[in-house]
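Re: [ENG-882] Designed sequences occasionally contain unexpected residues at chain ends

Forwarding the minimal case from QA. Structure tokens:
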């Protein structure tokens, strides 16, 4: 997970949503990483994915 932390940090500074979910990324950076990509394009649509 050497590259993961660096990328996650980038998202954290990306926007408000990324900041809020940044904490979740640390928990499941694996699964969240997938839906995280969607968040960048459609944060509103990605929110429900995070709960799934």
């Amino acid at each position: 997970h050497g590259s993961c932390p660096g990328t996650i940090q980038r998202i954290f500074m990306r926007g408000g949503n990324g900041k809020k979910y940044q904490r979740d990324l640390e928990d499941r950076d694996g699964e969240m990483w997938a839906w995280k990509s969607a968040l960048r394009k459609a944060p509103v649509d990605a929110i429900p994915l995070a709960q799934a």
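QA comment: On inspection the terminal residues look reasonable. Confidence is low (pLDDT under 50) at residues 1-6. Proposing we downgrade this to a documentation issue.
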